[in-house]
Amino acid sequence: QVQLVESGGGSVQPGGSLRLSCAASGSIFTINSMGWYRQAPGKQRELVATVTREFGVTKYEDSVKGRFTISRDNAKTTVYLQMNSLKPEDTAVYYCNMQSFSAIDYWGQGTQVTVSS
User: Which of 15, 32, 58, 62 lies 20 to 30 Å from 51 when distance is taken between CA atoms?
Assistant: First the structure.
């Protein structure tokens, strides 16, 4: 089992920045990928960005490329999402996700990000 605890999020004006963190504990050695998803009201949950735990290979959803950066710490137990140039359409609940080598998904509790003037 893997437990995830998210922090960060909040409310910012358009063009602002926020940083999300997600710390993992438990059977971390089983984790293959680490990432972030988001779900806006009335919409399906969508992938934002992922990073492989071992080699740090990243992938981004097209609308966040060049604005968001996903990274992990040296211990490979915490994943971050640096969000710059935020837009109102980035408003959503953001969920940390970690997936094991056997395709088991673990989810954080979710954190609200609101971008509004």
Answer: 15
